[in-house]
UniProtKB/TrEMBL annotation:
Belongs to the archaeal SPP-like hydrolase family. GO terms for cellular component: cytosol. NCBIfam families: HAD-SF-IIB, Pglycolate_arch. It comes from Caldivirga maquilingensis (strain ATCC 700844 / DSM 13496 / JCM 10307 / IC-167). Mg(2+) binds at D11, D13, D184, D188. Catalyzes the dephosphorylation of 2-phosphoglycolate. The keyword Membrane does not apply. It catalyses: 2-phosphoglycolate + H2O = glycolate + phosphate. The active site is at D11. This is Phosphoglycolate phosphatase. It holds the Pfam family Hydrolase_3. GO terms for molecular function: magnesium ion binding; phosphoglycolate phosphatase activity. Its cofactor is Mg(2+).
């Protein structure tokens, strides 16, 4: 591959977990990440709340990992936390919960800009109902609505994982072309376009695979372990 990777960015749900739709972490992925520490800089890019992503990074042993949370609405790097929009989707989400009888996720109280609603299995249907309601409320131009497979997210339209990754690269002086990002869902597909190496895990959505440069043979966390082994064995050389 002859591609130097300076920064390895990891999605969380469906990527570090044993499978899409499951929350249990894949031990092989955690072990591979711990082996990769010191060889390449590692960060998390997730739809999860910042506090959830920070706790996960600490428990994996990635203490100073740069974190992009809330689908690109928040960046935590070194000791600064940056909000990438002045607009929060909280009030709109409250209105949608009332109008459509939706349920907030457990992270809802710990979130700032990108708000999450339960999918209860039919996430694409919930996304469409919300998009229609936002049009009725004449605010559909201000918010993006997407599903990760784990929750339906409503966020200020100017925020995304792609935009946040570009901003993070500027902040830590890394060229986006030397960044690898591994993900599993449609939301990650857009972010694959801004990094040098977009990697979709084997059970990723069709859209994610379509926009990835590499699709791992293995699913979710085992796919992450497979990619990291490839990287550590010089299959994709790392510059550190
Ligand atoms: O928070 C979610 O819904 C999914 O999180 P992810 O971006 O790590 O897949
Ligand atoms: Mg995911």
């Amino acid at each position: 591959m002859g591609m130097g990777i300076n920064l390895l960015l990891l999605d969380v749900d469906g990527t570090l977990t044993v499978n899409r739709g499951e929350l249990a972490l894949e031990p092989e992925a955690i072990r591979a990440i711990q082996r990769a520490r010191g060889r390449v800089r590692i960060g998390l890019v997730t739809g999860n709340a910042l506090i959830v992503a920070e706790a996960l990074a600490k428990y994996i042993g990635l203490n100073d990992a740069p974190i992009i949370a809330e689908n690109g609405c928040i960046i935590k790097v070194n000791s600064s936390t940056i909000m990438l929009s002045a607009l929060s989707a909280r009030s709109i989400a409250e209105e949608l919960i009332k109008r459509l009888g939706l349920k907030p996720t457990y992270q809802y109280p710990c979130r700032y800009l990108d708000m999450t609603l339960d999918v209860n299995g039919d996430d694409y249907n919930v996304v469409n109902r919300i998009r229609e309601e936002l049009i009725k409320m004449r605010v559909n131009e201000s918010y993006a609505v997407e599903t990760s497979g784990y929750a339906v997210h409503i966020r200020p339209i100017e925020c995304s994982k792609a935009t946040a990754i570009r901003r993070l690269c500027e902040l830590i002086n890394v060229d986006c072309s030397t960044v690898a990002f591994i993900g599993d869902s449609d939301i990650d597909a857009e972010a694959f376009k801004v990094v040098g190496l977009g990697v979709a895990v084997g059970n990723a959505t069709g859209r994610a695979k379509e926009h990835a440069k590499l699709v791992t043979r293995n699913p979710s966390g085992k796919g992450v372990a497979e990619f990291i082994e490839l990287m550590l064995s010089g299959g994709i050389n790392t510059l550190t």
